[in-house]
Amino acid sequence: MNAVSLIIYPASDVPKTRKFFATLLGGEPYVESDYYTGFKTGEMEIGIVPEAMHRTPGALAFVTVSDIEGALAALLAAGAETVQEITDVANGLLVASVKNLNGTTVGLRQFPSGK
After folding, report:
1. Strand 60-64 to strand 105-110: parallel, antiparallel, or no bridges (unpaired)?
2. What is the pTM (predicted TM-score) of this model?
3. CB of 96 within 8 A of CB of 108?
4. Residues 18-40: pLDDT tens digits?
5. If we measure between CA atoms, which residue out of 111, 75, 74 comes closest to residue 94?
6. What class, spelled out in words, does domain 3-110 have in CATH?
7. How far apart are CA 106 and CA 53, in angstroms?
């Protein structure tokens, strides 16, 4: 079964949002850059991105899949609408997003082979 493994939060003020999540989660981010700050908590990852880089309003949950092309095709066949085409965002990490029949956006991500 695929699992929700990442939730992205857009932030108008990344440093304040980073401080909020560090306090909430009781730890520091495992990665920080100009475009992404990531916290790991168990099997879940919480990501902060600058608001201007986020394509949808509000938080966005990502489901990790082993075959992003197949998952995207199946969701489109079930009536979903593409929001973001499959994109390599870093070293083979693929992401895409779709809007479900209720208009809610859901993300897909596929890790590079061997990870």
Report:
1. parallel
2. 0.86
3. yes
4. 999 999 999 999 999 999 999 99
5. 111
6. alpha beta
7. 16
Closest C-alpha to 107, from 90, 86, 78, 88: 86
Six-digit token string for 45 = 């990852």
pLDDT computed for residue 115 by the predictor:
53
Q: What gap in Å lies between CA 7 and CA 112, rounded to an integer?
A: 19
Strand segments (E) across the chain:
3-11, 31-32, 37-41, 44-50, 60-64, 81-90, 93-99, 105-110
For 66-100, b/e burial (b = at least 16 CB within 10 A) is eebeebbeebeeeebeeeeeeeeeeeeebbbbbbe
Establish how many alpha carbons lie within 13 A of residue 40's alpha carbon, considering only the half-sphere containing its beta carbon. Answer: 4
CA 95-100-102 angle, to 5 degrees, is 145
pLDDT tens digits, 40-55: 999 899 999 998 777 7
